[in-house]
Task: structure prediction
Amino acid sequence: MNQQLVLLLPLSPLCRRPLATGPPPAELSWGGSCCQGQSGKTGSASPPPGGESQGEAASAAAAASQDARLRVAGLQLYQAAYQKSLPHMAEALAQGAGVNWSNQENGFTPLIQAVRGGSLVTCEFLLQNGANVNLRDAQGRGPLHHATLLGHTGQVCLFLKRGANQHARDEDGKDPLSVAIEAANADIVTLLRLARMNEEMRESEGLYGQPGPPAHSPTERQYGKGPQEFLGGGGCLRF
Result:
């Protein structure tokens, strides 16, 4: 049997060089030069330094400017309500003034200012534009409290028609009726008692909105209609 001899020859120095494990040279990489920009780096250019911070600063400045404009408009509405200036009030609202803007020192709102100014029309204008009739100042007094303290009977009637809470108490624990009794203002005391009578009559109706026993005598029917007709009709215009 013929046997083949395998000669083990020593490796040449070229064969002993270890294989390269790193990335191929740039000149051998696929697309090495065609995919690089002038700087020799791939990808899009980075944004200029400080670009994001400049955008944030611009947004913050715009927001601060908007807040300043709204504060100026709110102050204009606040002052115009006291001065009974409907054109300036309308202008302030058009500029974005909050109809319930409040003075941080005393908590007065434009509606309270309108009460202090003594104008029934100004109060109605603010209510028509969404003023909250139950917002109170720093002493816990709402528009109804202020109107009662100042003896503005027409405003008291208007606020009762608009759902003012006559049971709210100020920081001294007084509700509008207590204030009116102390001031011996018979007209306002009558209005507030009529409003309470109206509430009690509604609460005394049957459960789940079912009406209670009907009134039989003409006196009972007239007594029942009195508060609703006065507060819901043109009673406020008499004052």
Remarks:
- The first helix runs from residue 13 to 16.
- The chain has a mean pLDDT of 77.
- DSSP finds ten helices and no strands in the chain.
- The radius of gyration is 41 Å.
